[in-house]
Amino acid sequence: MRIIVPIKQVPETSAVRMDEKTGTMIRDGVEAIVNPLDLYAIEAALLLKASQPEGQCEVIAVSMGPPKAQSAIREAMSMGFDSGVLLSDKKFAGADTWATSYVLAAAIKKLGDVDLIICGERATDGDTGQVGPGIAAWLDLPVGSYVGKIDGLTDGRINVQRLLEDGHEGLEVQLPAVLTVVKEVADPRLPTLRGKQRARKAELTTWNADDLNLPDENLGLNGSPTRVVKIFRPSVTRECEKLIATDDQSINTAADRVLEFLQERELV
Amino acid sequence: MKHNGVWILAEQNGGIVQRISHELITRGRKLADKLGCDLTAMILGSQIGNDGLQGLLDRGADRVIAMQAPQLEFFLIEPYAKCMMKLLEDYRPEILIAGATTTGRTLLPYVAVKVHTGLTADCTVLDIEDETGNLLQTRPAIGGNILATIKTPNHRPQMATVRPRSTQPATVIEQNRAGEIIRLDAPPELLTSKIKRTGFTPLEDSHNIEDADVVVAVGRGIKKADNLPVVQKLADSLDAALGASRDVIDRGWMSYPHQIGLSGKTVTPKLYVGVGVSGAIQHLAGMQTAENIVVINNDPDAQLFRVADIGIVGDLFEIVPVLTQKINERKKP
Ligand SMILES: Cc1cc2nc3c(=O)[nH]c(=O)nc-3n(C[C@H](O)[C@H](O)[C@H](O)COP(=O)(O)OP(=O)(O)OC[C@H]3O[C@@H](n4cnc5c(N)ncnc54)[C@H](O)[C@@H]3O)c2cc1C
Ligand SMILES: Nc1ncnc2c1ncn2[C@@H]1O[C@H](COP(=O)(O)O)[C@@H](O)[C@H]1O
Known about the structure:
The structure holds 2 protein chains of 2 kinds. Chain A has helices at 38-51, 70-79, 97-111, 131-139, 193-201, 209-212, 220-223, 248-264, and strands at 2-6, 9-11, 17-18, 25-26, 32-34, 58-64, 83-87, 116-120, 143-154, 157-163, 167-174, 177-181, 205-207, 227-232, 241-244. Chain A is of the alpha/beta class. In chain A, strand 6 (58-64), helix 2 and strand 7 form a beta-alpha-beta unit. Chain A is globular and about 75 Å long. The mean pLDDT of chain A is 93. Chain B folds into 2 domains: 6-190, Rossmann fold (3-Layer(aba) Sandwich); 209-331, Rossmann fold (3-Layer(aba) Sandwich). Chain B has a 7-stranded parallel β-sheet, with helices on both faces. Chain B is elongated, with a radius of gyration of 22 Å. The interface between A and B is large, with 84 and 81 residues.
């Protein structure tokens, strides 16, 4: 069987600094990493591969992004992926989730014979979680989202547990299918030294819009139904009454005032 | 036919209309009034009680369209998507808003691709652009560091999801308010599914900070898990649920369902009390809409003070016990 994991390269957001004046991200010196939530999808695919007889399951990473996104694919390979495809073309730039899932779906179709596509729950930069279900729609496949556990794979079906607001829902999904997975699904392994060496030397496949035979009008910013019209810093609005409490007396006074506030607003 | 009207996707569970539906009415009513058009609530399910459907009208919907079939009892992507697409095709709404629930976040992106339109996730503010009548969708981006306003100028319907609890549910305007309830049987050919639901196990930890009227949130200022009882006592005195910042969760002092913020839950309680929480932008994203905000922090410049109504600058270990005692005394008959 063949499992595909779409992975995205993202800036390391916990290190993101903002230009206070322009409200734009300072990209200099920000490291590009594999979307942390995609590591769980990678691990889930590797575990499924290990559960199949030797040589029976192939795991492939695909990523749409600039040429440097090949390092994301190499990382997946250093963890044990068989191969990877980079989807790179200037025409893909500025794609929203509609146009992104369009290109990814086209690549998956071109790879062919795919049984399972496993996406991360969401990417930490765009943060939409829309690309996985979008791919399913393009390929007319069923999608099981928010999967927290994979119970097993038999007879062209996969059994999974979705993590919902109020509990775990069991699903039996007919393959081929798309899954989006959450953190609970697996514990991502670290790349091995041998894996890293193999990944460094590996030949990656790169496809552009022509390789995929895609019309310009559906690509990138052009093909995106949504438009960003404004970007701004969140503003904060309330006037805070600040009470300084440093010793017993001021603590007492401040606590009295808070109690009074709570009573005024009928909260106690 | 021209696209017309604002729609919301109401959700049911066991035939009972869920709270998110009423939150969406708050959002949808505002947009419909600004556009001068009708607000329609669509809902998919098996047997949906009449009270729930009338309740949608009573809270401000002008029309309810319920599509029913036994196969629609639970959310399954294919039948839900096909039924939704059928309704979108037959009625052609201009705007469709859903909750950013596990259902909304799966169904809408799937349908948006199928009907070729744009979708904006997790919006915090929705508005109508004056000149064009386009939907303006504002959402946090890049880890909450910025807000982006997005529109879908050339495709219809314009679609958005909004986070649960990011607004108050609409209250009843009038009992038995006039309006249309349309019940439709789902066409059988739309109901095939390659997915079968095999079971459901409810979460054990029923503690829900989203449902609480009062939330006390604890941050890293508490220093260690052993100190939690200090804040728990304050929470008890206020009948509050205890929430936390991500730092507290990451350190394992409390479990993930308690996390408030961008990557946790959004809460909109009547009262939020932040204790030893700095108020990082990602935390603010989950609690800013609380009606009243009280802060205790020893750093006078902590960000959280900027969204607070009232705050005490000082050591939480000295202040919290005093405040707790005063609240308990006041409660005594
Ligand atoms: C992509 C992303 C998503 C995130 N999502 C979330 C999220 O969902 N929720 C969230 O909360 N965070 C989130 N964060 C993390 C966030 O940026 C902050 O790191 C976190 O909120 C800080 O937690 P804190 O306020 O408890 O800790 P700190 O920032 O360390 O603040 C502790 C506060 O306690 C005060 N203090 C210390 N001692 C005392 C004392 N004795 N008495 C009174 N006050 C005291 C200090 O002055 C300080 O203000 C996210 C970050 C990223 C990058
Ligand atoms: N450019 C991309 N290349 C490959 N996979 C992607 C890309 N964008 C999103 N994905 C996949 O879709 C998931 C959800 O992303 P998003 O909808 O952007 O939050 C990610 O976790 C990835 O698995």
